[in-house]
Amino acid sequence: WTFRAENFFLPAADRAGTDPTAHGRIADEIARLDRLDGDVETLAGRIAELALATAREALRECDRAIARANLTTHELAKTHINRGIILINIGHADDALDDFRRADELDPGLMPESATNRSAALILLERYSEAVEQADFAVESGTRSQANAFYNRGVALELMGDIRAAYESYLDAAAAAPDWSRPREALDRFQVHSLS
Question: What is the 3-state secondary structure (H, E, C) of the chain?
Fold first, then answer.
């Protein structure tokens, strides 16, 4: 676990002031976790709480940026995509789809990026064939996140039972991002046998 001293990364009780980049009371947070003294379940729960708190703060930052209305249309669209990604990470996939739709309306040039992330939201909603369609669209449209699109496609195909196509998508993801461990971990679960 990595600790960050900036207010943005700390629970509200440990923040100093309102500037998200200012340093808060990180020592208090570390001391609280140290007092858990090996209680793994409590520590895991606390880490999950911190992750959720950080995600919620990031969501509030996106909301503030959108409300300020001083962003270009392109920046606003990107903020909606970022907001959607955060929503996926806290389990609000339906709301994420709304943000991706809004991003598409604001800047159609970002549709490949929103499609990549939309595919992840659709997987969470168990709408696997739609997830594959969005991942395919993202790849065909030249998303900058090719590896993510291929990976999402692989997950959806695997959940649909199309194991061969899922394996090929994971291979594509690994080729697109050789240093990313997640596609390699997915590939490690497969056993490939020759039919000769």
Answer: CCCCCEHHHCCHHHCCCCCCCCECCHHHHHHHHHHCCCCHHHHHHHHHHHHHHHHHHHHHHHHHHHHHCCCCHHHHHHHHHHHHHHHHHCCCHHHHHHHHHHHHHHCHHHHHHHHHHHHHHHHHCCCHHHHHHHHHHHHHCCCCCHHHHHHHHHHHHHHHCCHHHHHHHHHHHHHHCCCCHHHHHHHHCCCCCCCC
